[in-house]
Amino acid sequence: MKRGIFISFEGSEGCGKSTQISFLKEFLETLGRQVIVTREPGGTIAGEKIRELLQFTPEVENMTDETELLLFAASRAQLVREVIQPALDDGICVIADRFLDSTTVYQGIGRGLDTTSVSQINGFAVGKTTPDWTILLDMDAAEGHSRAIAARGAAQKDRIEDQPLEFFEKVRAGYLELAETNPDRIERFDASQTIEDLANSIRQSCLSKFDWLNQA
Ligand code: Z5A
């Protein structure tokens, strides 16, 4: 049976994850692979309820950072066991729109929670299911924010999107540091390139990282 590959996309809001995920999915499918895409928080019935609570429930305005961390982890724990690991076991490729690095950076660096506790909770939530490759779409935080606002239009603003620019600058710096300390897994791409150029760079890197993908 073909081996499933687990790829995660990371980066701050508006960096183009959803756009590039659809290109990479299509590319992998042209290579004969079955692909599923997950999003976080969400991706399961329990996870989507948690997403609603985390992002679009104004009544929980006073949610503590610790509660937020545990809810992101809970959504991921369900997603890993219900969707991601079973798909990988069946030889299906999984592309995750955010995974544990989001928690490391948003809750650990952005919110300033104890990084050792965040890492332990992350580990407990995902077990041995970790990405083979993480694509970090890196761009100026203010530009990403403007893109996200323009894309959202009149849709409801989420709770995290509402943070000041300094929060997203910390998030960007956190991601860059994470990429430096995990060079074998995390690859940084310049997300300010055109959509087509970025998609091409990702395709090329994908083929050099998983050179067996081209084999029948
Ligand atoms: N969060 C957390 O705190 N902790 C966690 O553990 C997890 C998440 C898992 C999830 O938000 C929020 O939860 C997120 C982090 C936090 N909050 N923030 N910020 P979400 O899932 O609703 O949204 P998002 O992950 O932040 O992504 P996004 O804003 O939806 O954007 P995107 O998927 O990265 O980008 P896009 O939709 O592909 O593109 C945005 C727009 O830019 C769109 O109009 C595109 O056409 C345009 N675009 C895309 N690429 C380009 C290029 N290259 N040039 C020009 N324009 C482009």
Q: Specify the helix fraction band.
A: 40-55%
- Percent of residues in beta strands? 5-15%
- Identify the strand order in the major beta sheet: 2-3-1-4-5
Question: How many DSSP-defined strands?
Answer: 5
Q: How are helices and strands ordered from N to C? A: EHEHHEHHEHHEH
Q: Radius of gyration from the CA trace?
A: 17 Å
Q: Largest sheet, if any? A: 5 strands, parallel
Q: Which residues form runs of ≥5 with pLDDT under 50? A: none
The end-to-end span amounts to: 12 Å
Category from helices, strands and their pairing: alpha/beta
User: Which ligands, by name, code or SMILES, are bound?
Assistant: ligand Z5A
- Specify the overall morphology: globular
Number of helices: 8
The whole-number mean of residue pLDDT values reads: 95
Quaternary assembly: single chain
Describe the protein's architecture and organization.
By secondary structure, the chain is α/β, with parallel strands linked by helices. The chain is 54% helix and 12% strand. It has eight helices and five strands, in the order E-H-E-H-H-E-H-H-E-H-H-E-H. The chain has a five-stranded parallel beta sheet with strand order 2-3-1-4-5, with helices on both faces. The longest helix is centred in the middle third of the chain and has 25 residues, at 65-89. The model has no long low-confidence stretch (mean pLDDT 95). Ligand Z5A binds at residues 13-19, 39-41, 72, 98, 102-103, 106-107, 147-148, 151, 158, 160-161, 193-195, 198.
